[in-house]
Amino acid sequence: MSDLRRTSLNDLHRELGAKMVPFAGYEMPVQYPMGVLKEHLHCRAAAGLFDVSHMGQILLRAKPGQDAALALETLVPADIAGLKEGRQRYALFTNDAGGILDDLMVANRGDHLFLVVNAACKADDLAHLRAHLAESCEITPVRDRALLALQGPEAEAALAALVPGVAQMRFMDVAVFDTVFGELWVSRSGYTGEDGFEISVPEAQAEVLACALLDIDAVAPIGLGARDSLRLEAGLCLYGADLDTTTSPVEAALEWAIGKPRRPGGARAGGFPGAGRILRELQEGAPRRRIGLRPEGRAPMRPGTDIFATAETDTPIGAVTSGAYGPSIEAPMSMAYVETGHADDGTTLYGEVRGKRLPATVVPMPFRTASYKR
Amino acid sequence: MKYTEEHEWLRPEDDLIVVGITEHASEQLGDVVFVELPDAGTTVSKDDEVAVIESVKAASDILAPLDGEIVEVNDAIVENPGLVNEDPLGDGWFFKIRAEDATAIDEYMDESEYKDFIG
């Protein structure tokens, strides 16, 4: 694993007994001695600490006479101009074909925007921003800060013990705190379906902060394995699995990431890559649709599992993109893309697992209700 | 007790052989979340895929270690797959097989050979 990059918490992960794996060019902890299942349940019951330093942090600052929000809106269908200072919003970089290049978080921090993008996409995202926004914005990758996520019902109490001001934040608020751990850029958000925070911290102080959090009884370190089952129970997409350059926001059931002012009739309708296809699909629907599936039996339907309309038909109508056992729902769950005519909630579909057609029901997501502090 | 290269253990019990997966295998697999067992009464040949085990990480096949008949299966691990991790050599057993040739078990590794095998 010598070619892999290491986060500033690499030594700590090893001390904690993590099993390290390659992920998006980084050496990352997939699990700790507690194991994936118990880590998942711990995060839902108390609080979990995740190292997500591999993700990309980017600052976007308008050049004189320019507007960073309007500039970014040329690349994403989200309403960025309407994003208030101190607030964060989910967005998608789209391509000219209406596909998704990456999903990201955008925060309005007053005189600039702060973007958090996926690790595997961050080099491409940076190139994309530079190719399109170089004239209007200063684009600065943040290379000297780690990123931690603290998630779960005890996350607020744990972080507030160190940084009291975070208790006042609501879901998707962002704030900056001067602390003994340096300047922290905190958002009340995450990717587990739990209340919690994402904390950008100077690399030099990241381990001290992580250790201070881990010293709190409720907090345990959680690896990428449980991060995946947590986000899947929460119905959240994983870029590269559930989203890619061929899936449109409407196919992905992410219409809510298309801001009202960016829709037909809106004040700033269209004006993002692939707007023709995406806005047409918004009105007419898309040929396929991302759905949640609950297998009737206990066998998980893994990514790549073909989905059929009946137990007999030869031609699949779709396939699973994420699938696993959900430790909190105590049942298997999958996300799949299927032809839209078969995507209604309550429809029985069949997944082919080891040569057998097993029934599964189309269900609304999330599989487990989120507990955000709104 | 004998061990296969597929990380199964075989323990003679009366005229049957009890089969399960080793502690090493259960640790490598991680938390087991799903087990599918054959029906009792199934006739199997050595290396047939007779059972499926899925952990939080992946699915694996369990192979028949011998020719014979599956005479009893452990439904408890279907109901509670976590037993495979908690007690792989005891309550986490998979099935009991009546071997056509009970001496066929002798070809497999003993405990010290298996320990060398997994390093």
TrEMBL record, chain A:
<feature type="domain" description="GCVT N-terminal">
    <location>
        <begin position="10"/>
        <end position="259"/>
    </location>
</feature>
<dbReference type="GO" id="GO:0005960">
    <property type="term" value="C:glycine cleavage complex"/>
</dbReference>
<dbReference type="InterPro" id="IPR028896">
    <property type="entry name" value="GcvT/YgfZ/DmdA"/>
</dbReference>
<dbReference type="InterPro" id="IPR027266">
    <property type="entry name" value="TrmE/GcvT-like"/>
</dbReference>
<dbReference type="InterPro" id="IPR006222">
    <property type="entry name" value="GCVT_N"/>
</dbReference>
<keyword id="KW-0032">Aminotransferase</keyword>
<protein>
    <recommendedName>
        <fullName>aminomethyltransferase</fullName>
        <ecNumber>2.1.2.10</ecNumber>
    </recommendedName>
</protein>
<dbReference type="InterPro" id="IPR006223">
    <property type="entry name" value="GcvT"/>
</dbReference>
<keyword id="KW-0808">Transferase</keyword>
<comment type="similarity">
    <text>Belongs to the GcvT family.</text>
</comment>
<feature type="binding site">
    <location>
        <position position="198"/>
    </location>
    <ligand>
        <name>substrate</name>
    </ligand>
</feature>
<dbReference type="InterPro" id="IPR029043">
    <property type="entry name" value="GcvT/YgfZ_C"/>
</dbReference>
<dbReference type="Pfam" id="PF01571">
    <property type="entry name" value="GCV_T"/>
</dbReference>
<dbReference type="GO" id="GO:0004047">
    <property type="term" value="F:aminomethyltransferase activity"/>
</dbReference>
<dbReference type="InterPro" id="IPR013977">
    <property type="entry name" value="GcvT_C"/>
</dbReference>
<dbReference type="GO" id="GO:0008483">
    <property type="term" value="F:transaminase activity"/>
</dbReference>
<dbReference type="GO" id="GO:0006546">
    <property type="term" value="P:glycine catabolic process"/>
</dbReference>
<feature type="domain" description="Aminomethyltransferase C-terminal">
    <location>
        <begin position="288"/>
        <end position="367"/>
    </location>
</feature>
<dbReference type="Pfam" id="PF08669">
    <property type="entry name" value="GCV_T_C"/>
</dbReference>
From TrEMBL, chain B:
<dbReference type="InterPro" id="IPR033753">
    <property type="entry name" value="GCV_H/Fam206"/>
</dbReference>
<dbReference type="GO" id="GO:0009249">
    <property type="term" value="P:protein lipoylation"/>
</dbReference>
<dbReference type="Pfam" id="PF01597">
    <property type="entry name" value="GCV_H"/>
</dbReference>
<dbReference type="GO" id="GO:0005960">
    <property type="term" value="C:glycine cleavage complex"/>
</dbReference>
<feature type="modified residue" description="N6-lipoyllysine">
    <location>
        <position position="57"/>
    </location>
</feature>
<comment type="subunit">
    <text>The glycine cleavage system is composed of four proteins: P, T, L and H.</text>
</comment>
<dbReference type="GO" id="GO:0005829">
    <property type="term" value="C:cytosol"/>
</dbReference>
<comment type="similarity">
    <text>Belongs to the GcvH family.</text>
</comment>
<keyword id="KW-0450">Lipoyl</keyword>
<dbReference type="InterPro" id="IPR002930">
    <property type="entry name" value="GCV_H"/>
</dbReference>
<dbReference type="GO" id="GO:0019464">
    <property type="term" value="P:glycine decarboxylation via glycine cleavage system"/>
</dbReference>
<dbReference type="InterPro" id="IPR003016">
    <property type="entry name" value="2-oxoA_DH_lipoyl-BS"/>
</dbReference>
<feature type="domain" description="Lipoyl-binding">
    <location>
        <begin position="16"/>
        <end position="98"/>
    </location>
</feature>
<protein>
    <recommendedName>
        <fullName>Glycine cleavage system H protein</fullName>
    </recommendedName>
</protein>
<dbReference type="InterPro" id="IPR000089">
    <property type="entry name" value="Biotin_lipoyl"/>
</dbReference>
<comment type="function">
    <text>The glycine cleavage system catalyzes the degradation of glycine. The H protein shuttles the methylamine group of glycine from the P protein to the T protein.</text>
</comment>
<dbReference type="InterPro" id="IPR011053">
    <property type="entry name" value="Single_hybrid_motif"/>
</dbReference>
<dbReference type="InterPro" id="IPR017453">
    <property type="entry name" value="GCV_H_sub"/>
</dbReference>
